[in-house]
## 1
Amino acid sequence: MLSAGLANMLKELSYSSLNILKRGKIFLAFVLLSACGGGGGGGGGSSDPDPAAIATYTVTFSTEWSGVTFPTNYPGDRDRHFSSLVGATHNEQVIFWESGQLASEGIEKVAEDGDNSVLESEIDSAIDTGTADAVLMGDGIPDTATETELMFLVSKNYPLVSLVSMLAPSPDWFVGVSGVSLMQGGDWIDEFAIDLVAYDAGTDSGVVYYAANNDTDPQNVILPLDSLATDTDFADGVHRDDGRHVATFRFKREP
Ligand SMILES: [Ca+2]
Ligand SMILES: [Ca+2]
């Protein structure tokens, strides 16, 4: 609801309030803090004693994947899509996936089938042990669109985000982030973007988008997607010639 300008002004006011408090001008500080409290109610943490303990973010998931940008064996405009977003807010004591490590069964299911159920169970287990705060579930990018948005709450004790989506159709290829922090130096980050590398989950041995299922046994580690130039345009997870990324996450803090 608040314009960015007004939100910034309120933030400045709250810093001013703290400075004024230090100087002992309690009354004026009280008035300013009241103004801030009223303005910040949209953040969802209005009953929290510390308004900065919870933040609301929107992540915009966008793609430039097309027959023009990645033409080699392109699956076609009516087929190319990204599966429903799935992930978690969590702390540093849990890692749901990592390049160079074996994929969990949950990541395998997402990467091969766009099936989020096992990864959701893995996140639920982490929530039970106190290392994750919430499961994030969002839309994918259908063949008819180039972006989607997911809004979510995040708390100071669980400021990391892991979020993935299958690049589809594909044998076991996915995009996403693992443990990216929405805080820097104790403050919420206003806005940032991450260009997404395409990863091979190491769980299926297909080399083209429409490869038949071919379980990799023993499983390989997760790595940026590499392929022959005759199979796809990907090398080291990006376009082999121009370095283009197949998708982007843009995180933006909501006022
Ligand atoms: Ca593979
Ligand atoms: Ca497999």
## 2
Amino acid sequence: MSPLSVLIVGAGPAGLMAACELARRGLSFRVVDKKAGPTDLTNAAAVHARTLEIFAHVGIAERLVAAGQKWTAMTVRSGRKAAVHLPLDRIDSSFGGSLLVPQSVTERLLETRLTELGGRVEWLSEVLTVEQDAKGVRVSLTTPSGVEVVESAWLIACDGLHSLVRSQVGIEVEGEDIESRYLVCDVALSSTRSPREVVAYAGDGSILGLFPLGDHLYRAIGNLTDPDATKAVVETEIRSLIEARSFGEFEVDEVKWSSPFWIHSKMAKHLRSGRIFLAGDAAHVHSPAGGQGMNTGIQDVYNLSWKLALVTAGHAPESLLESYEAERRPVIRSIVHGTEALTKMALSKSRLRRWLRVAVMGWLNSQPRILGKIAARLTQLSLGYRGSPLLLSQKGVRGLRPGDRAPDVVWRSTSLYEALGDQVHTVLIFSGLEPRKGDAERIQALEKRLQTRFSPLVRFVRVEPKETGRLGILVDEDGQAHLRYGLPKGGLAIVRPDQYLSFLAVRWSESEVEKSLEVALGSCLAVPVQR
Ligand SMILES: Cc1cc2nc3c(=O)[nH]c(=O)nc-3n(C[C@H](O)[C@H](O)[C@H](O)COP(=O)(O)OP(=O)(O)OC[C@H]3O[C@@H](n4cnc5c(N)ncnc54)[C@H](O)[C@@H]3O)c2cc1C
């Protein structure tokens, strides 16, 4: 087999994230891109709370937050009167909102982090052909020093919308293009609106979204009413387009950059062909509504990388990798369809639909629970893998189920996510807010059994309400974690390396926990798989 484990094609946000992940997990890899360096464009300005949580593990969240503009609310207006206000600062994440930051900054920070981790992008290196057989992948590449053939065990295609890898392996895409021509621009605006608020205006067949990037700079996206407009006409149109559609709430001071674009709403029919995986825009493209694109690509590779690490190290069978498509495709489908429906609804000229839009907005303003669910969805915190083949049981506790994102809990000196890390599966044993005598022996027996079977792939963390001085205890000040996991009387949770729940129960048996871990690890064997 090839000594190179993974070749990553494309070093946009998805490819750079994949490279950082594989570097952190100790895999041998190369990452190539035909461009000369990272983008200098603002493109994907939205980095959602779930992505920030992941970036905290990668080690760039603090730097990104320092470079960006906090996004804590969104107001959507329909015409002059109707508006719905969506607070993002009450979401269930320690980041208390999402972030607006140019894609150029995100890519630069990911590339810097990759260098810190000992990796580097091979720029000006273009993949020309891709072949694979049962043992590996063979790729021809033009580099500044000539044509090279690279062999690797696996390939992650992060080569964007027009993915060459996807077309060479014959994976089809399904979906459509949304008819209408759009404009994206960076503009300096004056307004009395909060610089932490995104504002979207839906009119009679028109939309405009304004995303603050700090220092009066905004990313503006809107549809163009004249589909044949040339670039020169477009630039003169921007000022009146923004000022008229925002009912004068924003005044244009300067147009810094603009570009026309079309909205695609498509996804690959499969995310895997043999030894090749698709991630990012190579796997899905959708309307910019809600800024989901880049975030979804980053989640793709976060899902894939820990699985590739386990399989490559021989700790799990290749069947674990089948869960990548099984878990990610439903998430991608819901994002593609959701953003498409929102865009069509916002653009609709039908009087009935506009009436419906206004009526729904009015109703939503009095529904804080539903607004909370919309915020959790927008920030990607509520996306999960309930239908995953890696789950033994679908049973959960009080609305929280296996497949859901494991909630974070923040204490004075640490957080649950900090304690969990993201390298191995963690068995969280909740003692209960009033621990019972006699449980200690049962827990010790479980730890011993699982350690014999799964060490070093699994670690144990006991969550107890009081400091006892023993090692490996997480002190649950105020009982927050017990309550958040619905386990005030004690219980057990298994959390995957990517912070999704594999198991959650008040009552458990040793064999049930063992079996759940086996399934979560793709029917993992205690001894490395022989190849
Ligand atoms: C104007 C605009 C605004 C957007 N706004 C948002 C937003 O607000 N929020 C959001 O989440 N998303 C947004 N997006 C989408 C976002 O930019 C993309 O989802 C994101 O860039 C996709 O990342 P990626 O790494 O999958 O692909 P890309 O960024 O497209 O990177 C693909 C890379 O592959 C390289 N490549 C291609 N073919 C080859 C080859 N044969 N050999 C070697 N290298 C190759 C390319 O050079 C490129 O660097 C926006 C996009 C645009 C255009």
